[in-house]
């Protein structure tokens, strides 16, 4: 039975072209794995064979098991753009063979392979069957391009539902849907239109409170069927490459997402200003117009940190140039903007104009950096500049060159880069033809293999270039296209949406979906890219935008002006109030980002993730938690005086009124236009900044620390650092934990800290809500303080130093 010839070599150099069927005559029609004939064990890797095909099962960590299939017995080169290096913990792996099965077990999960039919299943340590193959993995030869179409089908239970998969414009729960991953420029996309801009081959299954994920690390066009073709079967298949998936165990939903982030990485800490409000439009020009918009923000006292330059800032849409008529002195303009607290973000597209007098084209041509077709012609297509060629961002040399091209923009004072059209988009044909060749980091491939990673490698080149040029300053990038792992290099927006209420609802669902797909730093074009929102829709979108990690208003060039004041009163004042709320919450959002970066938690967490055991929550998609402690429910319909909001179990307080709720059911909450349902978890401590017109407008003297009473012990994490540099990677940061607990006569708050950063402010202004008793004494670090006050609703206020260790509030 043990067959040493099955050993998988790590040296894949000679084998990647051997995967074609050379032994059989005629194409291989659909083949299913047959009975397991032999196996070999090699540390934490196990290879099984049915005589022709091989399947490798490897234990990556206690909770992650990888499965690969080689149709003709030769595995493809083991290379991934998605994975990041990470030490995964493997405690102990047990291998057992019985009459029917092979069992590979970690302390958390068992992978079982049936001998008779090669079916693979995963079982929780308490015996719950998480997932099992509905049929053996199968494959079919692709005669035209070589390689195989590869297929995997898993049984689907009646109580099982599906989530994640990136940016799909459909219901949050994916059961009953068929989806395709193929990055596509989808101007004014419709609900249920598919595919869209990003390819994130990671889905979650949730059944009876047990959750697992499947990350299929395959860049070819990939298809999903969640119980459509057959109600009891979920399938995924790809048009090429290797069947190569990671089973990610939970059983908690949030842990599956965390483990996916360990595999594929998280966002870096964004510069603090990137969490402020961003104003974008296609396009602000000339320079006077840009200044006028920026000045209006300051005159009207509406906070804003970033303004964008869309394609018209360039000379004939040539990347890395300026239109000298509209922008005769970019350096001066950007420094004037900077003086009033604006960062400037500029767009850069992949298409490079074919123009022998244009240095970028000349350099790219001279160095052979542009993509070519199978017969060696250049890949040419029309985009904004006219006839263009396109850098092959899958070539490491090209990425390095590209990264260096940003020097000029940085010298002019540019603060961030927006990568658009990187699906890649080509006018007319949509994208590149399949036969375009790519370097694929020396693993070579056609566009079929590189298409879905092209945009990610472009923004990677951008990010890495900026990082190198800016030295110790955090880059800010935003991209439209992406593949799993793109979060390591960029934030994303959801592309060309429409100014309708339906799209506002989609915006909410898509950001939650991106967040649980590893892409927390996401946002939508507030107001809708194309079409005309009225004041009400725009205002409701701003409200949702406060709670999307990236808050950017954007609009197409053929729409009416679209700034927060464009709709007059009362909309302007309400927008101001909500943008101000965003700025108050900045230290809280920053702390949520830290928890994403450090502990791999998504910033937005849907209700089903908070309470996966309640089956009805499988279908909720309006409410979500923003970080640990704030639950919001955007208003998604016009003219409504109230709406239903589900609050998960536990104690919640209305952020506006401090009314206390016992969760676990739905409530009707009134929703006048100047409000939206926002709730804070009992026991939360939320840091707030004073309203600033932009980040670092003035030196802070104190931070407001709002704390809500709880009888249960609750912890909140507050994170602080320099805000713009990479010192946090050298542990120069401060992570504070506030722990609270209460009784009917006392409330105790304790603070612990670690890290090496010292914030410059000295004081906390405390506000404590929901105390169930009349306060008689406030003791800070053992000393009673006399200066405290409470209002008619028993909200307590007092001041302490930022270093307090223990506060006792007593009846
Ligand atoms: O073909 O740069 O999604 O945000 O304003 C359209 C112009 C190109 C598409 C982007 C949009 C941007 C627009 N771009």
From TrEMBL:
Keywords: Glycosidase, Hydrolase. Residues 601-684 form the Glycosyl hydrolase family 31 C-terminal domain. Residues 704-770 form the DUF5110 domain. GO terms for molecular function: carbohydrate binding; hydrolase activity, hydrolyzing O-glycosyl compounds. Residues 55-225 form the Glycoside hydrolase family 31 N-terminal domain. It comes from the Bacteria. The keyword Lipid metabolism does not apply. One of its GO terms (biological process) is carbohydrate metabolic process. SUPFAM superfamilies: (Trans)glycosidases (SSF51445), Galactose mutarotase-like (SSF74650), Glycosyl hydrolase domain (SSF51011). InterPro entries: DUF5110, Gal_mutarotase_sf_dom, GH, Glyco_hydro_31_AS, Glyco_hydro_31_C, Glyco_hydro_31_N_dom, Glyco_hydro_31_TIM, Glyco_hydro_b. CDD domains: GH31_glucosidase_II_MalA (cd06604), GH31_N (cd14752). Residues 268-592 form the Glycoside hydrolase family 31 TIM barrel domain. Pfam families: DUF5110, Gal_mutarotas_2, Glyco_hydro_31_2nd, Glyco_hydro_31_3rd. Belongs to the glycosyl hydrolase 31 family. PANTHER family: ALPHA-GLUCOSIDASE, HETEROGLYCAN GLUCOSIDASE 1. This is Glycoside hydrolase family 31 protein. The lineage of its organism: Bacteria, Pseudomonadati, Bacteroidota, Sphingobacteriia, Sphingobacteriales.
